[in-house]
Protein 1
Amino acid sequence: MTMPPVASRPPRARRRRNKSSLAGLIYIAPAMALVTVFFVIPVLFTLWMSLHRWPLLGAPRWIGLGNYARMLTDARFFTALSFTAHYTVVVTIAIFAVAFPLAFFVEKQKPFISAYRTVIFLPVVVGLASASLLWVWLANVDSGLFAPLFQALGLTAGRVNLLATFDIAFLTIIIMVVWKIAGFTMIILLTGLQAIPAELTEAARIDGARRWQRFRHLTLPLMRRTLALALILSITGSILAFDQFYIMTSGGPQNRMISVVYYIFNQSFVSFNLGYGAALSIALLAILVAISVAQLWLLKVGEDRP
Amino acid sequence: MLKKLLSVTCLFSVAMWSTASAETISMWVRSGIGDSFKEVVKAYNAKGGDTVELTEVPFAELVQKYATAIAGGQAPDALSLDLIYTPAFAAADQLEDMTDWAKSLPYFNSLAPAHVKLGTYDDRIYGLPLSVETSIFAWNKELYRKAGLDPEKAPATWEEITANAEKIRALGGDTYGFYFSGGGCGGCMIFTFTPLVWGAGADILSEDGKTATLDTPEMRKAVDFYRNLVAKDTVPAGSASDNGVNFLSITNGKIGQQSLGAFAIGTLVTQHPEIDFGVTLIPGVDGNPSSFAGGDNFVVTKGTARLDNVKSFLEYIYSVEGQKIMAKFGSLPTRSDIAEEVLAGLDPRLGVAMKAVSVAKTPYTLQFNDLINSANGPWATFINAAIYGDDVDGAFANAQSEMQSIIDTAQ
């Protein structure tokens, strides 16, 4: 601690400091008010609801930790959790596998680079729900695009219903999400790539580092913060996945695509157990916070060294 | 928002100018039940006086949308509610008690009894019949002719239906012999598929609704018929993932046979006159026909300010004029005292649907949404797993135990 003793300051300075901290408070007040109204209060209210048996219609009743106890023996909740984990791992790897090469591709100045960037980024500005609806049609076996196309190309013997069996439906959804999200991850990675000074790469090249070595020992470490951001956004988004399963497969085939948020939705608005839905939401919030903290720690983002 | 503001302003100025002002009643109706209610609203609005503003809500989301709207104070004045939900909503004390008014109607005793029974909770009446339909079996006469079948001969057994389906499929291309929504549409399948076991005397729930009785020889036989239809390629591949959106596939003219509802008769007759079809009762697995009596109840949100306007609208629906419009678009008469008068001169195929009432059943359970209608409920999952999956025994076992556990948790 290197703070000078407060008493040694002239009183006028202290007053000015108080004044400026008051001004600071006023400046952040609108933001704080927004966060309070739209985040803190809803979370506290959800917490409060999770301690009740709270039907959508009718009067709530206090049951303490009953909802949380029920969660521990709820097999369907754990099925949803493991499906969500499976989906998150697969889709995150797929997104990065596509977004990283794309980021390298659009980083260098070359003809039509803005056009490439725009085209790759375009799906991002489509809403996820609209994209899902679009793909429901594309994947429709009778009136869509893929099934007749594959048949015409001779890839499949007859028309295959892409959404009818788990493996192919899951693959279709993964491809849809990658198509939709990869452009966004690419932009984030691109900013990280562009922040690396050209001299460093140049120096490494002169020192004889090969392409892979430069990537492994120079690019990756320097992009750590960017990677952390992209990874956290991707993982959080995947854990909260809902629209694509709800719209494209209605959670099917045979309920094998029920993500955690889908399960919360079903509990709250199909079975009308708002209290249990709230408890599940709190559990999911805790899981998300834990995962994000773990990621920041693993990528050592808080430390000062680059 | 602007529209809302405008209508509020309009309403306000109208109220200022005339004391006997016309009111706007807001009403919701679910999608997929045909046009009968929409048409009766159109006719009522054209008469002048009160108007009804109709909002169509997707059938799979109506219950949660209405429940959240009540919780948020945004509920419509009245609702066309799937009759099987009336007890649950009445039990939650969200509906207007209409007992005294209903009993004062001179034709109260001739209103559809199943609807009134489900609209009654604790001896008070909360729901009154709005639309009535039964499930029936339809076949495309033109495809029958092309396949060398007798277009006037209704199939009476599932063996016959299967044989016909194969002959129609043999026409090739994208002409198929049979269709059903097999991808998680519990509502479609309880309506069209359970009659197969009901006709043979079995059921999926016990009489008191407290035991799941899914795994019966009759149900196994019914599942086999459908599996066989799929295995013989008589059903389009889209069926496996159709969550009800393409329920009316027969309207495309390339489906030979399908189980439908009376509303669909109205839709076919009024919107697809090019399709020449016949209807008969749905055969059970042993040939005895059965049907699902469904439809909607008219319920009023508790505490609405426009109760009297709503009542006069309902009286119009029950008039001969209103009933005739409803029937023309596929809703069977709700008043038995004027049923003949209403059906006179209308499509004779509606008579078959009316006849189905005598053999029809309506399941009664407070967990209908969880058990049957939810796309992720045990019934919808069972249909897909048993008919399209590889493990029929597993599908029966899973659905049976999950249904029982939902029933047990709710008690």
Protein 2
Amino acid sequence: MNAVITVLGKDNVGILAKVSAECAAVGGNILEVTQSVLQGMFAMIMFVDITKITVPFSQLADQLAEKGEEMGVKIIVMHEDLFNAMHKI
Amino acid sequence: MINSHDILETINMIENENLDVRTITMGISLLDCIDEDIDKACAKVYDKICRYAKDLVKTGEDISKDYGIPIIHKRISVTPVAMLAAACPTKNPVKFAQTLDRAAKTVGVNFVGGYSALVHKGFSQGDYALIESIPEALDVTERVCSSVNIGSTKAGINMDAVGKMGHVIRKTAELTADRDCIGAAKLVVFCNAPEDNPFMAGAFHGPGEADCVINVGVSGPGVVRAALAKAGDCNITEVADIVKKTAFKITRAGMLVAKEASKRLSVPFGIVDLSLAPTPAIGDSVAYILEEMGLEQCGAHGTTACLALLNDAVKKGGVMASSHVGGLSGAFIPVTEDAGMIEAARSKALSIVKLEAMTAVCSVGLDMIAIPGDTPADVISGIIADEAAIGMVNSKTTAVRLIPAIGKQAGEELNFGGLLGNGPIMDVNMKSPSRFIARGGRIPAPMQSLKN
């Protein structure tokens, strides 16, 4: 079971480190990270294995959203099933 | 692995284009609550709804959070209450409405549908009692929605019921005149009503349904409009393809939510309703899709053709995305709930006459239209009869949800607030159909062959 963590906004120092630390703290295992600047916007997408996380998924989503606000970026945590459903037949 | 373009597209749909799952509606059968003692029946109704739906709202919120997709409404539809009223026809069925309202508040849903009667061929005593009580029921409750099916392709149109409903709609508006006549916004008159519709105000849990099911209504006019805007000046074949592809994605999100809700609540999955349901929010408008196709404003000549294409493409895309499709499935055109329709009605680009033509090719019918407060009941019945005839002959669902704006005239506005929106009062042709309506009787069912 994987989560997709998307970070959108203005680039600044330590985004990846802070998001990774937050995931590690609750037992999320980072599988893949892609990062690019799309249409003038910083975009990072992270696939995280959440099978063994120690807090409920919704709590992790809230924590990261809060962290994003502190850093001035938008962090969206979603279940990968939604993307699979919408984009694969 | 999922590619990043797909991820960003989905996030953009949710954040900027109002992609959402409009409603999870739990259909609950009340047939086992029938009792000749109305108080006992009401107690059973309240207990059953509270027992079955106690986790509905929480489950909806949890799924929304887990998948990151907004689920706007959690609602309940029940067996047409006229069937319960049939066992105690001398008692005032408003008690049932109050019970439904109380149960809705207890479990936290914002609407419960099913204060309904199916009288397309004739009335039983329970149907009479219920229809007579609709104005009072919608006056004294907040969350109860009512609907009456007055015709079908197989049975024809019950003109006695059509005549009655003109008066019922007027009286409902009069009783709630102090609240912008909101009662009438919760009352739908149907021809060919579907039994598994999850959308209010016309939802009810048909007698052919299981004891309890989960039906999901998807939405997303903003997503479709944005996809068309991105495509630019392509030809109309490509427009249809874009709508289909977008509808597929929207419906898959709905299907995922439906499966998950069904699993978490241990209730069988019924259907996904493939509808483009607008809201008054900017960008969440069906009218804007039609304008994106190339019309100066919704209501211009060409509107019916654009809507026909849209409605058909939404179904074609959605059908493949869901294992069971049902309900109303199509584009909705509720005037006061759609920013583009409101503008078009204000500027007189859109008239009731044009809306009537549009209903021949899209889902539902004359929906959420404010009409002058002095419109006679017979004229309202005439509008219902016309709309029902379109549904009956074309084997499709049509509905009428008119709001007589008591004390107001064409050009003034009604404001319901929230999702029901606001809008101008539209002109109505006041020539009288009284003699036609007074005849009563039934319009016979139409031919199903020799179609021309």
